[in-house]
């Protein structure tokens, strides 16, 4: 919106100037940045990929009175994107004229020039009846400059643009919408890390209403209604034909309108021809979406030439940072009361004579025995944990704990749930064990339940819980080697140089390689030291990550 004048008209020249400055700054940063690995650093210096993008597109279309899910809205978004990427590559070519093209350009020249030509052809196919002439001419001229300057000097950067999600930082930049997204809702609530809610109201609506011909009084009445009701449907004086302009990603509580998933996909398909990389955008599906709807979204995205999509079904996570209501969960409970069903769970008893399995373990000098009684189908039905020192407090506590676990198993509590809950509990005694699958035990309880998981859970359950047998890792190795030998390396056109083959990793059963950095935080789940994984940290023991923003 910084490039829109008082009359709501987009300024192509100002936007192009901002692109020139930003691309130049990003290019300088490439040579002055630090990188997580030496291989990434070599690739970054050889290809000099950049990732320029924009935010607040949804608000701009709303301001101009263009529905997000319309041919006119998609054409306008495509023209702006074409101008951004065209000017970015034109500036990259100018920089190449001063300091030379990227190191791998000579090897990739044919592919790079072919991609530039395709971008230019797409720019000249933009609809002239749906885009302001000044913006259309600026976009086409930028791509003409790309071809003429690039033919002489080449390009400084293998990649210039992507569309990032921008996320919460968009609100810090005073944007109403993130990245290429439409608004999630005209009134939304953001959960704060320290607790509480922040109410966010779309600030573009009043200006959009005035551009659509509403008076100050009419626009004020509609805006007041939106803040009170949380939606625009039913607003006083709003004409029916203007409702699509204010459609959002999610249906407002009590409302009936939202942008369908094809509206998101068609928008991505419209701008993808003008983006170097991919688009990080969420295709929002309603809470009642079915598996077939998800499959349809992927297939249609492929048909529209979209490189990547992310699908989110509303309400599929217990907690989401943005919602359309400050009390969505309470409203759902009130709207759909659940019938209370009383069902008695029968205890499943073991036979008087039953098979059992006994396992000896040792943790830092503490010896013990795990005995598991089995049902007729071979599943565990009772647990005994016997410590070597009879009469000790530890032995008594383990007896009581094992009895409670036995009752849980007999009352049909899934073993996988118990393993998930009790594995990686940390307290003394802890230490190294002689068991090659478990290695370091954080406590006796941790050892018992990880051993039960390895012994009785299916491979799928073990994988979900991070319990992978050494033999299973070995079984995958030949497949990985076969893929390495048969998969073709990507050639020119994708902006990446071929990477050297990674050295083969060797593994000793039961021993994990410690490659943490000194500042690595401990795993919040199991306490193991994490290792750096991009901008995050990952635990090689249980698979937990510290999360990325």
Helix content: 40-55%
Strand order of the largest sheet: 2-1-5
Q: Uncertain runs with pLDDT below 50, 5 residues or more?
A: 328-336, 473-514
* Secondary-structure element pattern, one letter each: HHHHHHHEEHHHEHEEHEEEHHEEHHHEE
Major pleated sheet = 3 strands, antiparallel
Percentage of residues in DSSP E strands? 5-15%
Kindly report the average pLDDT value. Answer: 83
Number of helices: 17
**Total strand segments:** 12
Radius of gyration: 30 Å
The end-to-end span amounts to 25 Å
Shape: globular
Instruction: Look at the helices and sheets and give the structural class.
Output: mainly alpha
Describe this structure in words.
The protein is mainly alpha-helical. Among the domains are: 12-153, no CATH class; 356-470, no CATH class; 512-549, no CATH class. The protein is 41% helix and 10% strand. The protein contains 17 helices and twelve strands. The strands form five sheets. The chain has a three-stranded antiparallel β-sheet, with no helix packed on it. Strands 6-7-8 form a three-stranded antiparallel β-sheet. A hairpin with a 5-residue loop joins strand 7 and strand 8. Helix 1 (12-32) crosses helix 4 and helix 8 runs antiparallel to helix 9. The chain is globular and about 90 Å long. Mean pLDDT is 83; it is low at 328-336 and 473-514.
């Amino acid at each position: 919106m910084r490039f829109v004048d008082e009359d709501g008209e987009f300024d192509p020249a100002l936007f192009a100037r901002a692109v020139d400055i930003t691309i130049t700054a990003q290019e300088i940063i490439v040579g002055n940045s630090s990188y997580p690995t030496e291989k990434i650093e070599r690739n970054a210096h050889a290809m000099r990929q950049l990732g320029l993008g924009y935010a607040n597109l949804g608000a701009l279309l709303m301001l101009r009175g263009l529905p997000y899910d319309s041919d006119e809205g998609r054409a306008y978004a495509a023209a702006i994107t074409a101008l951004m990427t065209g000017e970015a590559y034109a500036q990259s070519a100018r920089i190449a004229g001063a300091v030379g093209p990227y190191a791998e350009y000579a090897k990739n020249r044919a592919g790079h020039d072919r991609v530039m030509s395709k971008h230019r052809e797409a720019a000249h196919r933009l609809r002239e009846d749906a885009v302001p002439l000044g913006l259309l001419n600026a976009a086409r001229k930028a791509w003409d400059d790309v071809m003429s300057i690039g033919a002489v000097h080449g390009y400084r950067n293998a990649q210039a643009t992507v569309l990032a999600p921008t996320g919460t930082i968009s609100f810090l930049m005073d944007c109403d919408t993130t990245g290429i997204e439409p608004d999630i809702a005209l009134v939304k609530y953001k959960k704060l890390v320290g607790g509480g809610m922040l109410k966010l109201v779309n600030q573009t609506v009043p200006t959009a209403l005035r551009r659509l011909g509403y008076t100050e009084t009419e626009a004020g009445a509609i805006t007041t209604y939106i803040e009170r009701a949380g939606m625009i449907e039913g607003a006083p004086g709003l004409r029916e034909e203007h409702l699509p302009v204010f459609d959002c990603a999610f249906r407002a509580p009590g409302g009936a309108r939202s942008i369908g998933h094809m509206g998101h996909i068609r928008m991505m398909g419209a701008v993808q021809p003008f983006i170097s990389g991919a688009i990080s955008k969420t295709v929002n599906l309603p809470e009642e979406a079915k598996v077939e709807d998800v499959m349809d979204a992927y297939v249609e995205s492929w048909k529209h030439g979209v490189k990547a999509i992310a699908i989110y079904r509303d309400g599929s996570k217990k907690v989401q940072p943005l919602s359309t209501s400050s009390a969505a969960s309470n409203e759902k409970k009130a709207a759909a009361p659940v019938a209370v069903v009383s069902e008695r769970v029968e205890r499943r008893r073991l036979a008087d004579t039953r098979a059992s399995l006994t396992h000896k373990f040792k943790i830092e000098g503490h010896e013990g025995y795990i005995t598991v009684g089995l049902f007729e189908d071979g599943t565990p039905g009772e647990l005994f944990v016997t410590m070597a020192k009879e009469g000790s407090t530890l032995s008594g506590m383990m007896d009581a704990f094992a009895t409670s676990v036995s009752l849980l198993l007999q009352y049909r509590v899934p073993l996988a749930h118990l393993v998930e809950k009790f594995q990686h509990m940390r307290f003394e005694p802890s230490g190294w064990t002689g068991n090659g699958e478990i290695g370091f035990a954080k406590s006796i309880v941790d050892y018992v339940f990880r051993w039960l998981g390895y012994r009785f859970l299916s491979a799928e359950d073990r994988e979900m819980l991070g319990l992978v047998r050494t033999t299973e890792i070995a079984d995958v190795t030949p497949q990985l080697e076969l893929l390495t030998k048969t998969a073709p390396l990507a050639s020119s056109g994708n902006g990446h140089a071929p990477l050297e083959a990674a050295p083969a990793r060797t593994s000793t059963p039961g021993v994990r390689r410690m490659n943490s950095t000194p500042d690595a935080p401990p795993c919040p789940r199991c306490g193991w030291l994490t290792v750096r994984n991009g901008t995050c940290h990952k635990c090689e023991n249980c698979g937990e990550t510290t999360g990325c923003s």
